[in-house]
What does this fold into?
Amino acid sequence: MSNASQTAAVPQRRPRNLAQGLVESITERIRGGEIAPGQKLPTESEIMRQFGVSRTVVREALSRLQAAGLVETHHGVGTYALEPSGGTDFRVDPADIATVRDVLVLLELRICLESEAAGLAALRRSDMQLSEMRRALDEFKGCLAQGGDTVTPDFRFHLLIAQATENRYFADLMSHLGSAIIPRTRINSARIAHEDREQYLARVNQEHEDIWQAISRQDPEAARAAMRMHLSNSRERLRRAQDR
It folds into this structure.
């Protein structure tokens, strides 16, 4: 077995959030020097086998590590460790986001944070970043049509916008929050909105399209407005449910 394969050991217990547990395990090895800067990480399949997690969990963890500046991925080649910075990691336990009230509080933060991120992304995004956002939306649409997992492409779309700001702190915060930012991972958003799943997600998809179109046009004010509308719609649906 190669040294790279030995760097990811099976954790002693399954954390409440598998992706965050994987992030913490690999982060500890990078910061502790067990995975050296420039060293290639095990393949996705090898990490899946060693940690007993799905490919979705591995990809979310790698996205968070990349946003945190701990690894970089070269498509078709692999993922490599970077020299860790001296800063401390931001910590939010997704397990604490469990009630409608918790999701509402998080949405208030997201409205402020992601509206500005969308505006900056419209000004600073590269063509490649725009294409990656497009792929995430196409995957969302495909999963919706097939009844599959829409959470992963949903989170990736929002994370890509944060990364396109070219401000690492936007991406760091989004990365550490992870898929817990998506309300339907915590509560039944469609039921709260009194809609069936397909109708609810089709509206979410259209709101995402409006954001992408504004970023594509490099229109920062329209991008801010579209993101604010998207997140405010979620907040208002939850507020009405809480009032009931």
User: Anything to note?
Assistant: The longest strand covers residues 71-74.
